[in-house]
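Here is a typical sample entry:
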Amino acid sequence: MELLQSVISLGAYGLDIEGPRIKWVCTWRRVSQKWKDAIDSFPSLWSSIVIKDRTEHVKTQLEKSKGAPLSVRILSFLTDIPDHHWIQPVVDNVHRWKSVMFYGYPEDIVTRLESRPSMLEAFGMERAGIPDDCKLFNLFKPNLRKLSLTQVNISHRFDPPLGLEELHLHCVVELEDGRFGYLSTNKVHRFLQKSPNLRILQLEGPCSRSPNDHTLRPVALPKLEEVSTVTSQVHHLFYAENCLNFSIGMKLTQERLPLSSWATFARVLKRVERLKITVEDDSLNFEAVAGPYEDILDEVEKDQPIAAHVELALFTANRSGSGFDVGLA
């Protein structure tokens, strides 16, 4: 039985690392009584609830997953899903939520939440605005370890959760005084302050320098292992001397920080094993590209040579609007 369950589990997950594909689970359940019994007695096969445009399996999944932790992913705006009968049963099992991803702000779900999702470790939101009076993060904060926000608008007063181990911010926009703008370095600094045990940091999107940028003291992140950024505006905000993998990006048209601001960033590279630098410009000029990064590497090697494998990738947009990379090791 256990061997059959393992085979079914491998087949159900396929290439989807987030959870098994429920349509295959339901199909294989009809193969034979033995397969049916094996699947029905394997709660984790039913515990990944994905809602996009069809919701007919939700009730069955909640029943057959029994007490197993739930992964809930809503991949459509609630207004685009015709059937809302699944919402209350999913909310009733909030104590089993382990990871949640919402597409759009789930007003109908948030208003029904009354108890805290005590098992929740990972939360993601895409294409949404988080209102100031949102109770979502007040409920989610205690055990949250992973936060992913993609194309999300947050308020200038948004208070980041405590104790994150993974932080993914993709094209996050900050609202202040009724105006939308790039995520500020002050807000990024606040995120880092709240998560001293951060292991993975991804900042995919532009940032703007705050008026008090020069007063922000670097945050020590001794457990940080992997960093990926597409802006040079945040490198002075943290120390990460144990980081092993660093990927950075810069547009040559950006205002460059003075070399003194790279001193903090240089400390990040002491133990890094792989460093990838991506430069974006409308026209490639290798000497212009190499210049600022040679300065960075020179700053790093003042104390000791770096052993990292360094890759320099040049990215430019062609006439069709697409882009290409040229990698130089």
